[in-house]
């Protein structure tokens, strides 16, 4: 039985989860794959595939991406090389950013 989450999820996030689930379901059916076949190829349980296709928000994002890739659902408007290029660009950007963000505990003194 799936764990019931008490986290609040925005309407946007819920709609996105439902959409990706429907896209995976439709692509799987169009390819003539059963839930069991997709689960075996992805190395996950049939229940996880069912929960993903039902639009449940508790599914691990890596599993969702793997299921989408196996049935040919493109999650971005980029091909493999375009995604790799963006990953490199973001990695370069991360190298320029601070390693952590901390809130300043010192108050601003505006006494003159």
TrEMBL record:
Instruction: Name the domain of life.
Output: Bacteria
Mind telling me which InterPro entries this protein's record contains? Cro/C1-type_HTH, Lambda_DNA-bd_dom_sf
Tell me the GO molecular function terms: DNA binding
* UniProt-listed CDD domains: HTH_XRE (cd00093)
The residue ranges of the HTH cro/C1-type domain are: 24-78
The name this protein carries in UniProt is XRE family transcriptional regulator
């Amino acid at each position: 039985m799936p764990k019931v989450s008490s986290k609040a999820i925005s309407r946007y996030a819920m709609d996105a989860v439902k959409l990706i689930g429907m896209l995976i379901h439709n692509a799987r059916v169009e390819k003539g794959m059963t839930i069991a076949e997709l689960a075996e190829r992805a190395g996950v349980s049939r229940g996880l595939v069912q929960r993903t296709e039902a639009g449940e928000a508790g599914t691990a994002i890596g599993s969702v991406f793997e299921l989408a890739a196996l049935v040919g659902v493109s999650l971005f408007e980029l091909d493999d090389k375009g995604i790799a290029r963006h990953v490199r660009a973001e990695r370069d950007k991360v190298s320029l950013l601070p390693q952590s963000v901390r809130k300043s505990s010192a108050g601003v003194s505006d006494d003159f």
